[in-house]
Automatic annotation (TrEMBL):
Organism: Romboutsia maritimum
GO molecular function, one term: chorismate synthase activity
GO biological process: amino acid biosynthetic process; aromatic amino acid family biosynthetic process; chorismate biosynthetic process
Protein name: Chorismate synthase
Reaction(s) catalysed (UniProt annotation): 5-O-(1-carboxyvinyl)-3-phosphoshikimate = chorismate + phosphate
Length: 389
């Protein structure tokens, strides 16, 4: 079973993760992995931290000469900022506990409840781990998963469809998104709307406020039958939602037309089925986003995620001191004003992990050769039943 754990603090020495269950003989493109990390760091609205960090993957185990060995892969991403934080973060030595203290809980962040739950008088101990710095690890893991799935033509893309009230309402083809998204400062496909989104972020930032938005993730060339209707925890939509909702600041996940299913009649929601000798079994539409009964249908997967605005405001909200309980303005930490573009990269890679997990569960095999054999045999059987690539 494909699984991972992440460890590390935002201003600690490095982020460490272990990805277990990767088959052997997968060739890794390190440049491509680093490119994915770089994409997560960009996007208009990010704060000063992204000027300090230049995330690079350092694989410590499980890979030899860029080829996976079938054992757990250990990954390190260094925090350059640690150089400035050693005296406050060093795990092995006495540290200065007074200078970087956070006492006035930021509403919307984990500060207050984390301090109560873990019995801390300093929310620094909470925010170091609750910080979305951790998403760099998740991107590295998802990027490896993408490279596994590339062997089977499965491809991923994501883009920003809304920032605040500015929306990109067009429905684009997968390839069109792919061609245009990386040229945009906010990962928006439409250049006109991109300008409006940047303007929106600027205005909000100038007021000391923050803003959220919606991102869309698409997966192309997925085979039918990943996931299962037979048990609640085998349903791929459930697992996707769980992984996506666990990303810092994600407050909603939709598959296909999502919440709109509630407003339409059945005939306007279900995707009718057709069969022709040339195209095989196909859906005439794809409103349900490529998932039925907890299984992939073979149509493109379409998911949207809503990100709330960044909780740290330069014009702080009312709060309390976690120790004295007196009324205070929330602490102000160096912060992003909008991280929706970065979040689209995170969501895309988190989806890649889940798809890869279910793909390996379905197809099986410890090494690329066996997986290829099993894959081809499944595709052949589906072909005999009328499904075509
Ligand atoms: C890519 C990314 C960057 C983020 N940057 C910040 C930030 O600079 N400041 C901040 O307060 N929150 C930031 N957040 C959001 C917080 O980490 C998040 O709101 C917090 O951990 C509380 O979790 P919750 O919103 O899921 O409840 C960011 C989230 C993501 C995904
Ligand atoms: C470090 C990252 O994001 C951080 C996420 C984050 C938060 O509270 O979630 C707060 C900020 O941390 P800092 O105070 O060090 O600037 C962001 O920069 C990153 O995405 O790599």
């Amino acid at each position: 079973m494909l699984r991972y754990l992440t460890s590390g603090e935002s201003h600690g020495k490095s982020l460490i993760s272990i990805l277990d269950g990767v088959p052997s003989n997968i060739e890794l493109n390190i440049e491509e992995l680093n490119n994915e990390l770089k994409k997560r760091q960009s996007g208009y609205g990010r704060g000063q931290r992204m000027k300090i960090e230049q995330d690079k993957i350092n694989i410590l185990g499980g890979v030899r000469g860029r080829i996976t060995l079938g054992g757990p892969i250990s990954i390190e991403i260094g925090n350059k900022d640690y150089e400035n934080w050693t005296e406050f973060m060093n795990p092995m030595k006495e540290i200065d506990r007074d200078t970087k203290r956070v006492s006035n809980a930021r509403p919307g962040h984990a500060d207050l409840v984390g301090s109560l739950k873990y019995d801390f008088d300093d929310a620094r101990n909470v925010l170091e781990r609750s910080s979305a710095r951790e998403t760099a690890s998740r991107v590295a893991i998802g990027a490896i998963c993408k490279q596994i799935l590339k062997n089977f033509n499965i491809d991923f893309v994501s883009h920003v469809v809304q920032i605040g009230s500015v929306k990109d309402e067009d429905l684009y083809e997968f390839d069109y998104i792919k061609e245009n998204v990386d040229n945009s400062d906010v990962r928006c496909v439409n250049k006109e709307i991109e300008k409006q989104m940047i303007e929106q972020i600027k205005i909000v930032k100038s007021k000391g406020d923050t803003i959220g938005g919606i991102v869309e993730i698409r997966v192309k060339n997925v085979i039918p039958g990943l996931g299962s209707y037979t048990q609640f925890d085998k349903k791929i939509d459930g697992e996707l939602a769980m992984h996506l909702m666990s990303i810092q600041a994600i407050k909603g996940v939709e598959v296909g037309i999502g919440f709109d299913v509630a407003s339409y009649m059945g005939s306007q929601v279900m995707d009718e089925i057709s069969y022709t000798k040339e195209k095989g079994i196909k859906r005439i539409t794809n409103r349900l986003g490529g998932i039925e009964g907890g299984m992939t249908t073979g149509e493109e997967i379409i998911i949207r995620c809503a990100m709330k605005p960044i909780p740290t405001l330069y014009k702080p909200l009312q709060s309390i001191n976690i120790n004295s309980l007196e009324k205070y303005e929330a602490s102000v930490e160096r912060s992003d004003s909008c991280a929706v573009p970065a979040c689209s990269v995170v969501c895309e890679n988190v989806v890649a992990f889940v798809i890869c997990k279910f793909f390996l569960d379905k197809i099986g095999g410890d090494n690329l050769y066996d997986i290829n054999k099993n894959y081809n045999s499944y595709i052949k059987r589906l072909g005999d039943r009328g499904w075509k690539r």
